[in-house]
Amino acid sequence: MGCLIDDLFRAAFTEVQPQDSAVLDLPASRIAMTTDSFVVHPLFFPGGDIGSLAVHGTINDLAMAGAKPLYMSVSFILEEGLEMEMLWRVVQSMRDAAHASGIAIVTGDTKVVERGHGDGLYINTTGIGEIIARQPIAPDRVRSGDTVLLSGDIGRHGMAVMAQREGLRFESAIESDSAPLAGIVREMIEFGVKIHCLRDATRGGVAAVLNEIASASGLQIAIQDGTIPVEDGVRGACEILGLDPLHIANEGRFIAFTAPEDADKALEILRAHNESATIIGTVTTGKAGRVTLQTSIGGTRILDLPAGEILPRIC
Amino acid sequence: MGCLIDDLFRAAFTEVQPQDSAVLDLPASRIAMTTDSFVVHPLFFPGGDIGSLAVHGTINDLAMAGAKPLYMSVSFILEEGLEMEMLWRVVQSMRDAAHASGIAIVTGDTKVVERGHGDGLYINTTGIGEIIARQPIAPDRVRSGDTVLLSGDIGRHGMAVMAQREGLRFESAIESDSAPLAGIVREMIEFGVKIHCLRDATRGGVAAVLNEIASASGLQIAIQDGTIPVEDGVRGACEILGLDPLHIANEGRFIAFTAPEDADKALEILRAHNESATIIGTVTTGKAGRVTLQTSIGGTRILDLPAGEILPRIC
Question: Any CB–CB contact under 8 A between A172 and chain B?
Fold first, then answer.
């Protein structure tokens, strides 16, 4: 169904840009604009809630386009019967998340639907930001030889939401990694890191991002398996459930492709924010669109996309 | 519930501007940004569908801020089981409506929720536009003596959706007035009409707009009842159902407040688009926030807000 819908939209909306954020020419300055609806279930989970998630999601999509988030809109679809206290908590959470990142929520809308035609609360956020990157940041800027960096440990958001939803209890509680990424990106830009591409590893996880960029750039990406940071709790939960952490959604982690000579500088900035940040691989020529995983025992396997959406409604 | 939610949001989102479009300072140019979610039921109705309605709604909110629509985002929340053919029709309708008005749909998102957690399809659209009005267009610019103009006959959208939903059959089918208004507004601006305030008469109809502007400007508005254009079919349907056309939502009609010396010029432009356009009253000092209706037999009554939302889910 996903592909069919994508095809439909692509056929009709020929002006839609294939990035999460569209890069726009305004009469005098370049801005990025992004939109996302949030239908996460449940509304509250360890490490966040639908409100902070929506704000972070919008900020991060702008950041990945090399933009400084400026303004956002918020639109609510409320199901009749939603407790006002719950809505209030979400609204406060949004406000706090927006304040913390310096994005202004400037316009909004609310619709109410009858009981049984929603699920408590759905939120749409749309953001615009000013492009501050001096060079375009996009998949087609990726070059053979580029270094691939990961900004922190992976798999926490998807597993936190899933555990909360299914009532699973693991030895240690897993907290979502939901967080704003614009500050880190801004530092990288200000310190002159030659960033070629940025992508937050949301739906489909790191595997989806790597495959997407490999396809879009027409290059191969070689990842060192032992380098991928995964918290023990997440690793254990994934093993029990037969899931690959590389396929699990994150909401505060991104992949950066930089010129190799700038990789150390980039890593230093990433590590100041998260000590798990690391270099995970390189871009090579070879088979266009292929992502290989160098396993710790010396073998190589192809890192595929997750088959279907393994965890629905995690954002 | 509506008031409570408004209060909640106002308390938390202190940067939200009270207009449908937020007027924003970008580093180099002034833009308007607006958002709306659409939950209209049914998805298709005489004269339009959820897709064209969403595009028109966004264009019109921008136009009412004196902006030229430039870019918009589209986000879909689909209920499992939605027929793809139906989605395709909606998507085409959006594309056509956007093309017709020269607004570019530049970014989007899709989420899918389980059966029973949606109602086929909900759409969020967010738009940004360039402010082209030379003077601010806002309720606080309204002055005593201003002329109040209405851009066409009223009550069609709300009645068309209601008739479709409830299976009501009237003598003549009522078609929604859903239409883009940016072109008309642009002409008024280009011809130098001194526009003080613009507002499209959506939820709550003309009565809600007039009351809102009377309150916000601290002035009284005096309307001549006999001047309000209402199609015979709409009038008949309203009489049968005990509804006041002034309370019914429109999606292609607006109220303009202009300097009195420019009223004739404004009316000429409005009439070129819709021959029902007319002057309906004037702004006066008197009781702040009051809207009076001069009835055709010489009496005067207070025109109140509709009590509650008489037609839910009409947009």
Answer: no
